[in-house]
């Protein structure tokens, strides 16, 4: 049997929740476990590529590939032990540029030829719902929702639930929410525990789980991208590195261990 990559989209329509850091850490963590990983940056800010040490302004980007100017093979760049399709600010023109029929499956069609080359495809999406996020959802097997332990983060989950249900009914019936991962967690703050309890309730409504691994606050997570390194390279003994390591193990158990919700 020929393996096809498990495609995971990191999504949250609220910014500042650690979505790109989680995307980079998941991609790097899976690669460290010996998995073949393709990271795809669908955020015009280009932060995923930057966080993994790529020059986001050199060579073809995902925008070039989606427009058909280059092939998917041309757009893939090797960075250490991860392949990446980068983005930059030009991708912000996608809403205006991609107006044809079936524009929501451009990314899926782009990635289909390389799906058998990888174990995992990790897609970072912008903190908004637009044609780029829609393409991510349409191409995905799973959604992972990074969420900061803040009250305002809860409000975005309601909107995300509606979006997810719409996409599942119309474009991608196999889409599944793998879980919600809590970021910027501070054990000593009552708010973190309160939000955690509320998120458990929302997760049940979404038919999903809250990951057992929570990502604690730590300056290393903010500093690592500036050095073009993932958290495991930059500060392997830091709290965020330990937490992301546990999170990666949990993802592997869910995807490859055959464990279902509940």
The average pLDDT score comes to 90
Count of helical stretches? 12
Q: How many separate domains?
A: 1
Radius of gyration: 17 Å
CATH topology: Rossmann fold
Beta strand %: 5-15%
CATH architecture: 3-Layer(aba) Sandwich
Task: Report the end-to-end length measured between terminal Cα atoms.
Answer: 29 Å
The first-level CATH class name: Alpha Beta
> Tally of extended strands?
7
Q: N-to-C SSE series?
A: EHEHHHEEHHEHEHEHHHH
- The helix content is 40-55%
Q: Low-confidence parts lasting 5 or more residues at pLDDT below 50?
A: none
What would CATH call the homologous superfamily? P-loop containing nucleotide triphosphate hydrolases
Brief description of this entry?
The chain is 42% helix and 15% strand.
Would you mind describing this structure in some detail?
The chain is an alpha/beta fold and 262 residues long. The protein has one domain: P-loop containing nucleotide triphosphate hydrolases (Rossmann fold). 42% of the residues lie in helices and 15% in strands. The protein contains 12 helices and 7 strands. It has helices at 19-32, 47-51, 62-66, 72-75, 94-97, 106-111, 131-139, 151-170, 190-206, 219-223, 231-234, 239-256, and strands spanning 6-10, 37-41, 76-79, 82-85, 120-124, 142-148, 176-183. The chain has a 7-stranded mixed sheet, with helices on both faces. Strand 6 (142-148), helix 8 and strand 7 form a beta-alpha-beta unit. Helix 1 (19-32) packs across helix 12 (239-256) and helix 8 (151-170) packs parallel to helix 9. The longest helix is centred in the middle third of the chain and has 20 residues, at 151-170. It is globular. It starts with 5 loop residues before the first strand and ends in a 6-residue tail after the last helix. The mean pLDDT is 90.
